Amino acid sequence: MDTPLVRTDWTREEAEKIYNQPFMDLLYQAQTVHRTHFDPNQVQRSKLLSIKTGGCAEDCAYCSQSARNGAKLSASKLIEVQRVIAEARKAKEGGATRYCMGAAWRSPKDRDMAALEAMIQGVKDLGMETCMTLGMLDDNQVFRLRDAGLDYYNHNIDTSERYYSEIITTRTFADRIDTLNRVREAGMKVCAGGIVGMGEQQMDRIDMLVSLATLEEHPDSVPVNMLIPIADTPLADVEKLDPIEFVRTCALARILMPKSHVRLSAGRTDMSDEMQAMCIFAGANSIFVGDTLLTADNPEEDKDGQLFAKLGIQAMVVGCDASK
Ligand code: SAM
Ligand code: DTB
Ligand code: SF4
């Protein structure tokens, strides 16, 4: 029997073998899989906006926005709907096709739902794809966001199940999977990935990707974030991950989830052009654009423009209505 192109029965042993093969063989395999499903010279662009910053009740060890971390970020309220729409318009003019709105919440409050719905509708009216990342959702919240027209929900599993409690104690890995299942069952597209470079073992990076690749359906988007070390958080001084390990992680994501958009997400400011080119060769085909992520820096548009021009990379236009 032929091996199916998209599998959800990957084992850790198979993934480990793929990850640890000679680097050139790994890149060749990843690029071959990539070319089966995507134009290798196209990269999708998303733009992030923090719609509610800081003061978060969760204790994620990497995050500038946790009220429990020592990081001195002041908490803000949910921002005005009109401001979100104005920022989204600018992002569209800058070439982004998806607008991702993030809130520093454990979960949204019901009193915020009407404003969130208005943001989704306003951004969709610009002809952009919409994404939100708001923490854990109950069924009613999932249905309300879906009915407002939300295209994607981002909810990262962040690391392996084994390492999870070293990074976050205020919720469990299983809580994350519950929300991901709710979002998928409601018919929204799933964006789920994680962070590497948090002091985890190689096995944790592999297990994290196997967990994503053995969900009932693969996430449509898989963000691979390199930890941005934030001063005064527990991970501020963690040892830097070898860049080759990061490229191997992108390649494994591409091979295990061949049709998903693998996003080279946080941490690009500290990556050389060569490293980013290698990640793209390994199958990463999406980035965040704009000089800020949620609270941290991202390369400026000029810098990304120059890199893409040098590499001959074009913007991927998916699901975005340029006529609006
Ligand atoms: N509060 C919501 C949640 O946790 O799902 C949404 C916002 S949260 C900031 C979104 C994601 O950003 C996290 O799941 C994590 O993967 C990523 N992230 C946060 N801080 C980061 C950092 N310092 N470096 C890399 N990625 C980070
Ligand atoms: C994702 O995986 N990475 C984005 C987005 N999804 C929400 C967030 C990165 C945040 C980086 C740290 C900051 O800006 O505070
Ligand atoms: Fe809160 Fe999300 Fe940051 Fe965790 S990652 S502290 S849930 S904003």
Instruction: Tell me which oligomeric state these chains represent.
Output: single chain
Strand residues, percent: 15-25%
Which second-level CATH architecture applies?
Alpha-Beta Barrel
CATH C-level category: Alpha Beta
Order of helices and strands: HHEHEHEHEHHEEHEHEHEHE
Treating each run of at least 4 consecutive H or I residues as one helix, how many helices? 11
What do we call the CATH homologous superfamily?
Aldolase class I
Query: What are the distinct ligands in this entry?
Result: S-adenosylmethionine, 6-(5-methyl-2-OXO-imidazolidin-4-yl)-hexanoic acid, iron/sulfur cluster
Shape: globular
Q: What is the mean pLDDT? A: 95
Cα Rg: 18 Å
Tally of separate domains: 1
User: How many E strands?
Assistant: 10
Word description of this protein:
- This protein has 324 residues and is α/β, with parallel strands linked by helices.
- The chain has one domain: TIM Barrel.
- Helix content is 39%, strand content 15%.
- The protein is built from eleven helices and ten strands.
- The chain has helices at residues 12-19, 23-37, 81-93, 113-125, 139-148, 161-167, 173-185, 202-213, 243-256, 273-281, 301-311; strands at 42-52, 98-103, 129-133, 152-154, 189-191, 194-196, 221-226, 261-264, 284-289, 314-316.
- Strands 1, 2, 3, 4, 5, 6, 7, 8, 9 and 10 form a ten-stranded parallel beta sheet that branches.
- Helix 8 (202-213) links the parallel strand 6 and strand 7.
- Helix 1 (12-19) packs across helix 8 (202-213) and helix 8 runs parallel beside helix 9 (243-256).
- The protein is globular and about 50 Å long.
- It starts with 11 loop residues before the first helix and ends in an 8-residue tail after the last strand.
- The site of 6-(5-methyl-2-OXO-imidazolidin-4-yl)-hexanoic acid has 17 residues, from strand 2 and strand 7.
